[in-house]
Each structure stands twice: as C-alpha cells, then as structure tokens.
Amino acid sequence: MRASVGLIGVGAFGEFMLPYLLPHCRIGAYDPVRDLEPLSERWAVVPESLEEVAAKDIVILAMPVQRMADVCRQISPYLKPGAVVLDVCSVKEEPITAMLENLPDHVDIVGTHPLFGPQTGANGITGLRIALCNVRGDRLDCVEAFLSKELRLKTIITTAEEHDRQLAYVQGLTHLMSKIVVEMDMPVLDHTTETFDIMMKMVESVRYDSEELFRAIENRNRFVGETREKFFDAARTIEERLARPGPKTDSD
Amino acid sequence: MRASVGLIGVGAFGEFMLPYLLPHCRIGAYDPVRDLEPLSERWAVVPESLEEVAAKDIVILAMPVQRMADVCRQISPYLKPGAVVLDVCSVKEEPITAMLENLPDHVDIVGTHPLFGPQTGANGITGLRIALCNVRGDRLDCVEAFLSKELRLKTIITTAEEHDRQLAYVQGLTHLMSKIVVEMDMPVLDHTTETFDIMMKMVESVRYDSEELFRAIENRNRFVGETREKFFDAARTIEERLARPGPKTDSD
Asked: pLDDT digits over A131-143, tens only?
C-alpha cells in the first residue's frame, strides 16, 4: 500500500508539488483559507480536515515560516507515533526550531528546502537541487533516497545554519535585486543586450513569488542582514569609484 | 575587389570582430599600445600605421568613447573622400558628437552599438542585436544590409538619444548590479537556486569587461544618473517595506 501523505498548506508551492508526489502516495490536503474542491477535481488529492491530514504517515508543512509554530502546536495532538514531519520553508533555522519545540517526541522530523519553485521548475524538476537537514529521528536516508531516486532531485545534506548562511546570498541577494528592478517600473525596452535578457530572466523567476515568501527570505534568516549590508556597502564603493577620475587613457 | 577596412583600436571587442569581418574584407589594424604582430600571425590582419588605416574605404573606430574626439582629430587629414566611418561605442550621443565635430565633411558617418560582446557572443553572433544611428551621408542602408544579410545580426535603427535613454537601463543597470555583486566578494556557494545561477550568468557576462567600458556605460550617458537614482530609490523603498510589519498572516 502506498504511503499516506498529509499536505498542510496548498499555496503556489504545495500545488506545484502535487503532480510529482501523486504517483507515489495518497495525498490528503488541508488549507486554512483556500477552497480545495476545484483542485481535487484536477488532481487525485482529497480535501480533508486538519485533524485528518495530521494523522498521516508523512506530514508536509507547506506554509509560510511565519505560520510554522502555530500550526505545529495545532497538529501535535493528531500526529501518529512514528510519523515523519517535513517542512519546505526557504529558511531553515526558524522552522526547524519551531518544529523541534512544538512537535511531540514520537514523530521524526526532516527539514527540507527545495531550491526551486513553480517558475524555475516550470520545465520539470529533474536535476534541480533540494537541501535537507536531519532534525530528529533516522528518516533522513529514506527521504533522501525518495527525492534522489524517484524525483531525481540533487540532494544537498546540510545544517540549518549552513543553509541559512548560504541562502542569505543565494536567495537574499537575488530576490532583493529582482524586487528592486520590479519596483523601478522600467519603461518597455527593445534595445536590449543578452546580459539584460538574463537579468530579466532572473527578475521574472521571482516576480510572481508571494510577498510572504520575500519577507521570509529577507526577514527570517539571521544572516541576510549582513548580506544586504554588504550589498549596499559594495554599491557605495562602486558609486565612489565611478565619481573618481578614471585610468589615464580616460581623457578627462 | 573586397572593401578595405581600417580598424583603429584592437581591444577585446576589436579582436572579437575579426573572424566575422575577415571573410568579407581586407583589414589593416592600428592600436596605440597593443603589439599586433602576434594577432597578425593568428588572423589575416595587417598591422599598419594610423595614417594607413585611416585611408581605407571603411574606418572602424573601436576605442573607448573617452578617446573618440582625440582620435577623430588625429585621423582627419588621412580620411579618403567618400569613406565611411563607424564607431562601436556603448553610448551614442557623445561619440556621435565627437565624430560630427571632428571628422571632415567628405566622409559619411554611421554610429553603431553591437549589443553583445566577447562573453555574450561567445557561441556565435547570429541573431544578436546591433543598434545603428545614421549620422551623416546615405550609407546606413548598405551598412544595415551587410550586418543583417552577411553577419545575420538583428539591426535596430535608432537615434543617439533613444539609444542612450534605453541603454541607461539595459547596460547602466545590469553592469551596475553585476559590479556590485563582484565587489561583494561572496563566499563559494553550493546551495544554489536556478535564480542564483541566472544572476551569476549575468555577473559573469560582464565580470571581465574593462573598467573603461564600465565607466563609459555609467559616466558617458546623460540618462544613466536617473537610472541609478531610481535604482537606489527603489532599494530604499524595498528596505522600508521589509521593515514594516507584514500582511496579516504574518504572525509578528
């Protein structure tokens, strides 16, 4: 019999995962605000109550990091002994702390961060990366085996601290720059270079991300403040360099 | 008989053009600092004096915009009546003014900006874009026909002002952001997303550009100051937005 999965939170990422997970398991889904009936007409996913989805073999928490501690407390009474709980947050220290502090000892916990989303995974997820942090119990190996063998993802086993240190650059910087470009509200341009086209590809890959995801990336990672400071320091250094006279071939 | 071309300035871009131009013309080249003998062993290009290269049917000025006015004055006595002079600068108003003011009336002038370079054209230039501004005379059509039919570039006929307005974003912004990232001197990262990989592709496409090119793009375009102001204003707006409490699902 296929494993039963409870999906809590069916936003852009939760929905994106469905076609990849459904061939491998039965999924019951719960979302506190979204009506899941239309979704269940399209996919073989069963809308259920929070109590029901929390009682599955595997429980995936796919909500903003900002909601994690509350939801962990809500589902705790319903979790089965021996179940494994996973999150998919873009930061790892905060949700892992929330899970450790609020989930009962009789469940195993694995933190995950799929390093892609609906835009960057639009053409399939084979070969894309996912970061994994073991939190409690010994289920990391089977989670890792499923992700690499069945979904053909490239798994990166890491710690919450190392993940957040790296993602402070990897997402902190790219999402900041992309949101700045969006905020600039540029005119339509057709005299474009390859480099500009690449920049716009970066911008488009995050343009439709939720404000909550952006806030999680920028505000819920204790290392990202330093990245943003470095960014603005570097910007000032470049501005100062441009204001100084150029090399000697520069005629003024 | 194939047209004779004089190439003045054999930097990264001048050298990059050689294999594309050599099948169509004989090229004499001059550079004020670079020894061209090694280059002439690799390509069928003849190192010549400034007087000699200036006396060709077609003269290509491939030097930094900062040098344009001086070089125009230097070559003026040697230019053939009916010759056509082209530049390849990344901005257009300043070099076009320099050519108009300093080149004799008996030569035609076309301003060009190939919207690619050695990095972004590394896999060939077919389909890449080039901006063209007619400056003096009626040779734009034959330049345009050569570039689109023989080199298979996508030509964009424009004015110096419209070009510089657009490139203030297209290059002003991408080169600024890329130089900021380079200046940040990030640690080696392996927990990377597709979006980060795209950003690094942008950064790598300009990382090895000369400081002079960067200064031309940022300092020799009268519209770029406004772009940089908009960029920093947008950055401040984003910073302020992040500092305010989030939407109501945000638990703090």
From this structure: 999 999 999 999 9
Distance CA B190, CA A140 (A): 20
Q: What percent of chain A has pLDDT over 70?
A: 97
Three-state SS letters, B69-100: HHHHHHHHHHCCCCCEEEECCCCCHHHHHHHH
Contact between A250 and B66 under an 8 Å Cβ cutoff? The reply is yes
b/e burial code for range B42-55 (CB count within 10 A of at least 16 → b): eeebebbebebbbb
A92-151, pLDDT tens digit by residue? 999 999 999 999 999 999 999 999 999 899 999 999 999 999 999 999 999 999 999 999
Q: Which CATH number fits domain B3-158: 3.40.50.720, 3.30.499.10, 3.30.750.24, 3.30.429.10?
A: 3.40.50.720
Q: Which of B67, B178, B191 sits opposite A166 (nearest CB)?
A: B191
Q: Identify which of A121, A183, A201 has the shortest CB distance to residue B237.
A: A183
Question: CB distance B166–A219 less than 8 Å?
Answer: no
What residue spans define the domains of chain A? 3-158, 167-243
* B211/A66 Cβ within 8 A: no
Q: What is the ipTM of this complex?
A: 0.91
- Cross-chain Cβ contact A231/B173 below 8 Å: no
- Nearest-neighbour CA in chain B from A56: distance (Å): 25
* Residues in chain A within 8 Å Cβ distance of B198: 174, 198, 201-202, 205
Pick the residue from chain B with its C-alpha nearest to A252. Answer: B66
Cβ <8 Å between B192 and A170: yes
Nearest CA in chain B to A245: B215
Q: Name beta bridge partners: B46.
A: B28
Answer for the pair A194, A140: CB distance below 8 angstroms, yes or no: no
